[in-house]
Specification:
- It contains 7 helices and no strands.
- The protein is an all-alpha fold.
- The protein has a single domain (about 1-35, about 60-180), classed as Up-down Bundle (Ferritin).
- The chain is elongated.
Length: about 180
């Protein structure tokens, strides 16, 4: 009887892990398509000296995405109330949308200030996800701490780039005034 139960739990966990992994992988693909570090615009931005080298970002995000998928699967395994599970899935989905959207605002739209506003929402969403995870599984919440830390660091980097490139911010304001006229 215990083996059947464990196998059932493992199957359910595997299914949820496959689902959260697929969602995270889709986010990585969409975000990756919105990233263009080779663009003339990005290359010419004044970036702070403390920006990590480009080679760091791939391994960092791979690790963070893996932790996000695993943490979310653990939460979904442990939340018994359907309404609570739906709320977590909704919060997780919103977080992933915000995650992928930042790249498009920053790299493709060339809008560091808009991306800064968006990444602040992403950080709030990430902290909310950690809070929700902590209710169900403290280990899952702990797995999200590096993600929250990285997003906080990315927020500081985004703010520094925005501050160091006022011409881009002025272009944003001029474009907004033109649309409002």
């Amino acid at each position: 009887m215990k083996r059947t139960n464990r196998k059932g739990i493992r199957r359910r966990h595997s299914r949820r892990l496959v689902g959260t992994s697929a969602a995270v992988a889709a986010t990585a693909v969409v975000g990756g398509l919105g990233t263009d570090v080779a663009s003339r615009w990005y290359r010419h931005l004044d970036k702070p000296a403390w920006q990590p080298p480009g080679a760091v970002f791939g391994p960092a995000w791979t690790t963070l995405y893996g932790l996000m998928a695993l943490a979310s699967a653990r939460v979904l395994d442990r939340v018994e109330e359907p309404a609570e599970r739906r709320a977590f899935v909704t919060a997780f989905g919103a977080n992933l949308v915000l995650n992928a959207s930042w790249n498009w605002l920053f790299f493709k739209a060339h809008r560091p200030r808009w991306a800064l506003a968006e990444i602040l929402l992403l950080e709030a969403s990430t902290l909310d996800l950690m809070r929700r995870a902590a209710k169900a599984d403290t280990r899952a919440a702990a797995m999200l701490v590096p993600y929250a830390g990285w997003v906080a660091f990315a927020t500081a980097l985004n703010a520094a780039i925005d501050r160091r490139n006022p011409a881009d911010s002025q272009r944003e304001r001029a474009a907004m005034r033109k649309r409002q006229s």
